[in-house]
Each structure stands twice: as structure tokens, then as C-alpha cells.
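Dear colleagues,

For the upcoming journal club I promised to circulate an example of a predicted protein-ligand complex. I picked one with zinc ion because it came up in last month's discussion. The inputs are reproduced below in full, followed by the predicted structure.
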Amino acid sequence: MTPLIAPSLLSADFAHLQRDIEMLNESECDWFHLDVMDGVFVPNISFGFPVMEAMARTARKPLDVHLMIVQPEKFIHEVKALGAKVMNVHYEACTHLHRVVQQIKAEGMMAGVTLNPHTPVACLEEIVADLDLVMLMSVNPGFGGQQFIEHSVDKTRRLRELIDRSGSHALIEVDGGVNRETGRRLVEAGADVLVAGSAVFRAADPRAEIHALKTSCNR
Ligand code: DX5
Ligand code: ZN
């Protein structure tokens, strides 16, 4: 299986966003991963809807929106209006997660639930059958360029088992510190989608790096 590659625009050059988005349009990447941070749920602020609307006008691949914010349910309509394919909300940010998931699906988007590194996959037992995607954070969210947390490989394996056992069709996405080496092990463990920020944008040739990620991370 060849994984989907979702480069994170957080690592793009914001002074040359259009150039970087056009580079991704020409690349073999599958999705655009957009990281929204509110300075409350995570200790950093990234960009919001006006910037994502500008990105969406140039982007020619599906948008995967990762909301690292409190009360993400307030923005379901805004995310839908961007034309997003996937809306990822954090398990830790949603008291009424089941309702939020139903609302996202009612808007015709894929419902993704993201787990912080310390949140066990068993927390999803009662909801995994309703999900289109589960994203595992393999760093603590808030910043690009952090070191991969090693236990994410085992966690991916345990999530794969939970999904298969529950008859869920959810894809497994992994976000943080993903490169060719960690990506290969994550895909072996059952990951379907790899987010890569610095591995792509700090590479000498980002398009070649996307090709390398796709071809070296197979199972
Ligand atoms: C972290 C973000 C990630 C980040 C990944 O909070 O959710 O998407 O941009 O960046 P790298 O690949 O550099 O760890
Ligand atoms: Zn992300």
C-alpha cells in the first residue's frame, strides 16, 4: 500500500505561499494539511480562515484541516465553506465528541479525530465505527520541526487493531516528525496518511522528497 502524503503548510514560506502551493500542486502529494492553532489549546498561533481562503483559491488538491483549537464545533461551517475534504478535531478539545462528529459528517466532510501523544487509542472504542479518520499526533501539537515520539509506531499498530476489530473504515493519519525513516515504520504499522512539514519544506528538492516519501514508505 502506498500512503497518502499530506504536506503541512505550517512549514511553507509564508512570504511565498502561492509559490509553495503551486509546487505542491505539481508534486505527487495527495492532500494539503492546514494547521490551525489558537494559542489556547496549544501554546502557539498559526493562521486562520482569511489565510486558508487564500490558500484554497490556489490549492488544487483536497484540504485536510487540523484544528488545534478549543471548541472546534464553532467553525464547522467555515471549514465546510473552504471546501475541505477532512475536518480533524482533537479528542481532548471536544466534550461532546459524538455530536461534533455527526455535525461534521452532516456537512459532507470526512470526520477526523486527533489524539495527543498521551491519549490512549482505547478512548476511541465507542466512537471509532463512526469515524472516517483517526489522526495520531507523534509530537505534542503546536510546532513544526519537533522530534518524533517513538511510541507512536506501537500506538499506530494498536489503533490498526482497534479499527480492524470494530469494522471501522477509518483511515489512520500520523502527524509530527514524519520523514522517510519514521514514515516507513508507521506505514508498516498500519498508517494510511502521512503528514510531513519540515521533511518536505526543508528538503533541498521538496518535490523529489514527496516522491521519495511515497515510494519508500510502502507496505
Ligand atoms: C504540529 C502540526 C504538524 C506539524 C508537522 O502541531 O500539527 O502538522 O506542522 O510538522 P513536522 O512534520 O515538521 O513535524
Ligand atoms: Zn497538523
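Two points we might discuss: The beta strands are 4-7, 32-37, 63-68, 86-90, 110-115, 133-137, 171-175, 193-196. The mean pLDDT is 98.

See you all on Thursday,
B. R.
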